[in-house]
Amino acid sequence: MRNLSLLTDLYEFSMANGFQQDLPATNATFDVFYRRVPDQGSFVIAAGLQQVVDAVRDFHFTTSDITYFRELGLWSDAFLTSLSQFQFNCQLRAVPEGTPVFPREPLLTVTGPIAQAQLLETLVLNILNHQSLIATKARRLTYAAAGRPIMEFGARRAQGPDSATYGTRAAVIGGATSTSNVQAGKQFNVPVAGTMAHSWIEAFPDELTAFRRWAHYYPDNSALLVDTYDVLNSGIPNAITVFKELRQAGHEPVGIRIDSGDVAVLAEHARKMLDDAGFPAAKITISNALDEAIITSLLQQGAPIDNFGIGEKLITSASAPVLSGVYKLAATEIDGQLTPKIKVSASREKLTLPGKKQVYRLYHAGTRRAFADLIALETETIMGTSTLAVYNSDPLSLNHQQRLQNFDVEPLLMPVVPSDFDQRSVQQIQADSQGRLAELPAATQRLVNPDSYPVYITTDLYQLQTELVAKAVVHAN
User: Fold this and answer.
1) What is each CA distance from 53 to 290, 419, 421, in whole angstroms?
2) Cα–Cα distance, 120 to 117 (Å, whole number)
3) Are 419 and 433 in contact (CB under 8 A)?
4) Which segments of 333-449 does DSSP mark as H helices, in order?
5) Percentage with pLDDT > 90 across the chain
């Protein structure tokens, strides 16, 4: 991974320059969280942590960088000297990749010298917002596909090479089984898949010849694209002819791909034609601008589809192309004295949670059935053996106070830097994510009108937030 230390908004450096001069002994804790779920869902799949860890461990500034900074003429010589000698001294805690996370709960925290921690904001948000967005979209598509494989086909429509490559990684975390992107396949050890383009068919004198030549080169991987001319009258009959020839030569065909037309009707006819010809195991793959609504509709119609190839709607999360994760100051610390910080806005929705915190997943006692999350101050001890008074973390909630009892707890934020980071394969992260999803109430996972999943805050945290809001109001007046 290349050095990304300059992938930072200008004002981050300007603030860090001032912090170093005015607050040189101040440590700070920043929280990364989001407020709204894309596509009116109920949760986001956390992704991108591995790239964040790689980026911060390689955070440094070259001689060329320092020369450029001097040419800008904005910052002190002492600050530029410190950048040239930069040593990373922040600690990061995060929820594991693949974990479903809910609005307002920290999915990553950064603690360290305030000037250093401020410099990470843009880079951290760039990585986490993008990969979490794509992983979440992939989860929705996987849910709609109801066990049928999702193949990621979006490289040509992604917003640049990094979005294509790391978008593939995120898509696999969210449930995709393979990719057409060879770069991502190699880099992340993801299975690669694909058939052919229409240009292959068009380049030969006729469709049958094109299919035969493909089968010649790939006798054990013959998935044929059947919609270049006429799916039912040409494509499938010619595919069946080649499939019979392959079988006679000792090979079994993979199947067909349909990329246009009324795929529900075409897939139904194709299935019958393939079955009647003696190829019930031949798979039917469809592609062409699919999303979760289209997949759901096709399967509700009973379309006999085995695989989905999904491009632009996945790799760009086209229906909800932004995850607005934020990076907010939660506390400062000088000589061991912690001072909680809060952002107060005219909109209660933007009220932040102060202090250093931990996030817990709550389970019905003796089970792995999650029923809520709880945000607590880091100094609190959370036990489910006695009654616990909590408040809804959503400042707009009407059903604000609750009492919980008889539950098991699991902390979600774990040390990742400078601790030994457990680097898992994307397949391991995907499997862990699916296990985490299975713990959630089924109603929260629906694609349309999902049930809300409660995220509570402790009484101590609620009171701290209330006190800081009151102080902020007094100061404002």
Assistant:
1) 33, 11, 8
2) 6
3) no
4) 426-439
5) 92
Span 283-291, mean pLDDT?
94
Report the residue count for the chain.
Answer: 477
pTM exceeds 0.85 for this model: yes
- Tokens representing 456 are 């509570």
259-262: long-range contacts (C-beta < 8 A, 24 or more apart)? Answer: 259/198, 259/225, 259/227, 259/286, 259/287, 259/288, 260/227, 260/288, 261/227, 261/231
The identity of residue 79, as a single letter, is: F
**CA–CA separation, 228 vs 60, rounded Å?**
52
Task: Read off the pLDDT of each residue in 432-455 and give the average, rounded to a whole number.
Answer: 97
> Domains in the chain and their CATH numbers?
10-133+321-476 (3.20.140.10), 137-315 (3.20.20.70)
Of 130, 180, 135, nearest to 154 by C-alpha is 180
- Rg (Cα) of the chain, in Å, rounded? 26
Query: Using one digit for the tens of pLDDT, what is the confidence trace for 164-174?
Result: 999 999 999 99
CA separation for the pair 407, 287 (Å, rounded): 45
Q: Where is 215: in which H helix or E strand?
A: helix 207-217
Which tokens in the block code for residue 99? 């974990």
Please identify which residue in the block is written with the tokens 């993008």: 130
Candidates 19, 1, 55, 129; CA nearest to 417 is: 55
User: Taking Cα atoms as reference points, which of 287, 284, 269, 266 lies closest to residue 198?
Assistant: 287
Does the pLDDT at position 258 exceed 60?
A: yes
Residue 245's nearest CA partner among 198, 278, 269, 205 is 278
Q: What per-residue confidence (pLDDT) applies to 477?
A: 56
Band of residue 446 on the pLDDT scale cut at 50, 70, 90 = very high
DSSP assignment of 219-263: TTS-EEE--SS-IIIIIHHHHHHHHHHHHHTT----EEEE-SS-H
CA–CA dist 133, 173 (Å, integer): 11
The closest of 376, 375, 367, 365 to 407, measured between CA atoms, is 365
> What are the CB-based long-range contacts (under 8 Å, 24+) for 276-284?
277/240, 277/243, 277/244, 278/244, 279/240, 279/243, 279/253, 281/252, 282/243, 282/253, 282/254, 282/255, 282/256, 283/223, 283/254, 283/255, 283/256, 283/307, 284/255, 284/256, 284/257, 284/258
Q: Which run of H or of E encompasses 98?
A: none
